[in-house]
Amino acid sequence: MTARIYRPAKTATQSGVANSRLWRLEYLPESPRSIEPLMGWTASSDMKSQIKLTFQTKEEAVAYAERNAIPYRIEEPKAAKRQITTYSDNFKNSRLTPWTH
Length: 101
What we know:
The chain has one domain (about 5-90): Double Stranded RNA Binding Domain. Helix content is about 10%, strand content about 20%. The protein contains one helix and six strands. The strands form two sheets. The chain has a four-stranded mixed sheet with strand order 5-2-1-6, covered by helices on one side. The longest helix has 10 residues, at about 60-65. The model has no long low-confidence stretch (mean pLDDT about 85).
């Protein structure tokens, strides 16, 4: 069973980056989920899909995977594009579209 090592993205509902600084090791699913006939819920017989380990650095996660003979795949985080704007930019004469209420 292959594991995925990645750094989770910042949540959309929060402005902080507290949980996005840690690296996470998760197992990839071995079998697809199925629909339970009685209640209609999705079910899975794969118990390793519930395991989510966190590490301070990528090297710690890789060392854990290699120490336990877990095949892994590393996904590097993408840099966030920051667009610096100020409130006064709304009223510039060079604005492409006019500012209205």
